[in-house]
C-alpha cells in the first residue's frame, strides 16, 4: 500500500484514543494489530501519548484520557486543515461548538476539538512535524471513519460549510449508502498512485469513489437506542475479521456485532477492554 506523507485540507488524517489506563490499551492493541509503540510525551509530562507504528511508520495513537473526558473512552478522528483557528471560526458560524480551543502540541502541530450541531465530536489537525497516518488501508491500519447522526441533512450543511464536503449516494448490493466526498481528492491520490482509478474500476467501485473521505450513516432507533448520541466511528483494516473478533474476546474486549458480510467487506463491531468501540473490516473484492 502506498505510504502517506501528508493530506490535503479537508481529508481525515489521524485517529487516536484517550484511555483511563493507556498502558493496558497499548498491550491490547499491540497484541491485536501487531503495533509497536513509542511514547512521544516528554518524561515530565502529566500524561502519555503512545504512537502506534507498523514497519516503523505511524498508524494511530493511544494516549491518556483527557481531563473532563467522557467516562467511556472513544476513538477520535482528526481532519487535516490549513488553520485550526480559521476552522474554529467556520465551526461556530455553521452552528457547531468549540469544545477545546486550538492549541499547539510541541512542534508536532496545532489541534482543536469541535462538535457538530448534533453533538458529534471530532478533531482537526494543522500539521507541523507530525503528518498524520503514514500507512493506511492495509491490515492493522486505519481504513475509514464515519459519522453516525440522527440529522443527516443538518450534517450535510455543517460539514459542507466547514470542510467543503459533499454527500453522495453509493449504490451497493444491500442498498444505498451515503459517502462524504471532497472534490479533487481523487486527483490528488492519482498523482501519487497513477493506477488508482483502474484498480478501483476493476474491483467494481462506484464512479467517483476515489473522492471519498468518510461515510455518513443515519442513526435509526432500530440500530441505536435513543440514549446513544451522534458520534464519529473508526474502522481498521484486518486480514481476517473472524479471527480478530475471536482475539478481541481472548484479550478481554467484547464483540458488539459479530462478523457479517456487506458489499466489498466482512466486518465486525468490537470494543476494547476499557470500552472504546471500533470496527474491524476485511476487504473482499467482488468475485
Characterise this structure.
By secondary structure, the protein is an alpha+beta fold. It has one domain: 2,3-Dihydroxybiphenyl 1,2-Dioxygenase, domain 1 (Roll), CATH 3.10.180.10. The protein is 21% helix and 40% strand. The protein contains 6 helices and 16 strands. The protein has an 8-stranded mixed beta sheet with strand order 2-3-4-1-5-8-7-6. β14 and β15 (265-271) form a beta hairpin. It starts with 11 loop residues before the first strand and ends with a strand.
Explain briefly what this protein structure is.
The protein has 287 residues and is an alpha+beta fold.
Helix-strand sequence? EHEEEEHEEEEHEEHHEEHEEE
* Helix coverage percent: 10-25%
Q: Strand order, biggest sheet?
A: 2-3-4-1-5-8-7-6
Q: Determine the CATH topology.
A: 2,3-Dihydroxybiphenyl 1,2-Dioxygenase, domain 1
Query: Cα distance, first to last residue?
Result: 21 Å
Hey, roughly how much beta strand do the residues contain? 35-45%
The radius of gyration over CA amounts to 18 Å
The number of helical segments is 6
Output the CATH class name: Alpha Beta
Name the CATH homologous superfamily: 2,3-Dihydroxybiphenyl 1,2-Dioxygenase, domain 1
What does the largest sheet look like? Answer: 8 strands, mixed
The overall strand count is 16
**What is the approximate shape?**
globular
The CATH architecture can be given as Roll
Give the low-confidence spans: none
Topology:
Layout (H helix, E strand, L loop, with lengths): L11 E8 L2 H12 L2 E4 L9 E6 L2 E8 L10 E6 L3 H10 L3 E9 L3 E7 L5 E7 L14 E8 L2 H12 L2 E7 L2 E7 L3 H8 L3 H7 L9 E7 L12 E7 L3 H10 L3 E9 L2 E7 L5 E7 L4
Parallel strand pairs: 1-4, 5-8, 9-12, 13-16
Antiparallel strand pairs: 1-5, 2-3, 3-4, 6-7, 7-8, 9-13, 10-11, 11-12, 14-15, 15-16
Amino acid at each position: 500500500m502506498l505510504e502517506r506523507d501528508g493530506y490535503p485540507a479537508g481529508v481525515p488524517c489521524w485517529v487516536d484514543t484517550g484511555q483511563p489506563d493507556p498502558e493496558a490499551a497499548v498491550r491490547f492493541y499491540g497484541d491485536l494489530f501487531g503495533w509497536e509503540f513509542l511514547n512521544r510525551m516528554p518524561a515530565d509530562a502529566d500524561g502519555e501519548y503512545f504512537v502506534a507504528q507498523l514497519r516503523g511508520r505511524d498508524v494511530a495513537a493511544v494516549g491518556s484520557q483527557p481531563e473532563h473526558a467522557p467516562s467511556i473512552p472513544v476513538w477520535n478522528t482528526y481532519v487535516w486543515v490549513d488553520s485550526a483557528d480559521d476552522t474554529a471560526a467556520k465551526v461556530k458560524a455553521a452552528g457547531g461548538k468549540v469544545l477545546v480551543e486550538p492549541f499547539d502540541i510541541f512542534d508536532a502541530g496545532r489541534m482543536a476539538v469541535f462538535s457538530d450541531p448534533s453533538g458529534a465530536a471530532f478533531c482537526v489537525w494543522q500539521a507541523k512535524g507530525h503528518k498524520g497516518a503514514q500507512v493506511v488501508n492495509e491490515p492493522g491500519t486505519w481504513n475509514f471513519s464515519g459519522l453516525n447522526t440522527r440529522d443527516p441533512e443538518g450534517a450535510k450543511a455543517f460539514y459542507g460549510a466547514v470542510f467543503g464536503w459533499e454527500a453522495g449516494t453509493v449504490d451497493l448490493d444491500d442498498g444505498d449508502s451515503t459517502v462524504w466526498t471532497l472534490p479533487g481528492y481523487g486527483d490528488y491520490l492519482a498523482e501519487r498512485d497513477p493506477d488508482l482509478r483502474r484498480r478501483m474500476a476493476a474491483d467494481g467501485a462506484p464512479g467517483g469513489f476515489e473522492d471519498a473521505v468518510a461515510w455518513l450513516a443515519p442513526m435509526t432507533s432500530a440500530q441505536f437506542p435513543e440514549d446513544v448520541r451522534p458520534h464519529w466511528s473508526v474502522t481498521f483494516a484486518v486480514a481476517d475479521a473472524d479471527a480478530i473478533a475471536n482475539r478481541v474476546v481472548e484479550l478481554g474486549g467484547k464483540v458488539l456485532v459479530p462478523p457479517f458480510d456487506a458489499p466489498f467487506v466482512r466486518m465486525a463491531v468490537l470494543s476494547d477492554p476499557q470500552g472504546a468501540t471500533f470496527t474491524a473490516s476485511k476487504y473482499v473484492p467482488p468475485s
